[in-house]
Amino acid sequence: MNFLISFVYMEHFAWASFTKFSYKYRDKSGMADIGGYIKPFKWGSYGVAIGGDFIVWFGYDVGPIQLDPIYADYFVWLGFFKENFYLLIEHPCMHYIDRLDTLPLYWNSIRLMYRERDFEISGAFYIHSEKYQFLSRGTDWSFDIKSFKRFRERIRNEVFLAFEGYTFFALSRNYKKVYASFDMRGGFEFYNERGDLGIFLGFRPYDRTGIIRDAEGVPYLSLRVRGF
Asked: Which CATH number is 2-227 given?
């Protein structure tokens, strides 16, 4: 028993954010996100990681508070890591809220990732099958490449100017079409080794991924907190 307990690691990381679009984009007015991951076991530099993300997309309702939930966007993964490298099995899915006549979208992928606190790059292979259609419905992607980078400039003590960029590229299943998304944001961040709190203005100049998450050309305001 003591031998097994010696592998318990329990490192964890969590985040939450709220984003409000400056105007209605199709049927969306904003989104809220909460997620995290844990590393429950570790053997030397190797270990197990489990994580997930839950996003609610908001539409428009009657009155000044526009927080009518229209989509529930889930994302769960499980895999192994060695220091900053991860090999993951992912299962994202998107469900329509209060629309019983609309089927959910879902897909599965295998992802190789390198992750630091302010930098991340990864590539994924998507699992499709004509025979076993429960593996995927709603995406044309065959594989993708994603990246994220954050820059900081200290203003005073733990207060920083922060700039972030996100990129996404995917190739279609017939390898003839490219899907892509670019997201950039800048703002103020309260930052230390335990976590950070930031408020950002952002913009997606190009956002054409082929699924209903797209929000191209919409300026937005985002409040985010992360903790280790």
From this structure: 2.40.230
pLDDT, position 25: 67
Query: Does pTM top 0.70 for this prediction?
Result: yes
Residue 105 CA to residue 72 CA, distance in Å, equals 11
**Partners of 108 in beta bridges:** none
Domain coordinates in residue numbering, the chain: 2-227
CA dihedral 71, 77, 83, 85 (to 10 degrees): -80
3-state helix, strand, coil in the chain (%, to 5): 5, 70, 25
Element (H, E) at 179: strand 178-192
Strands (E) in 8-135, as ranges, are 8-25, 28-43, 46-59, 68-82, 85-96, 105-106, 109-115, 119-126
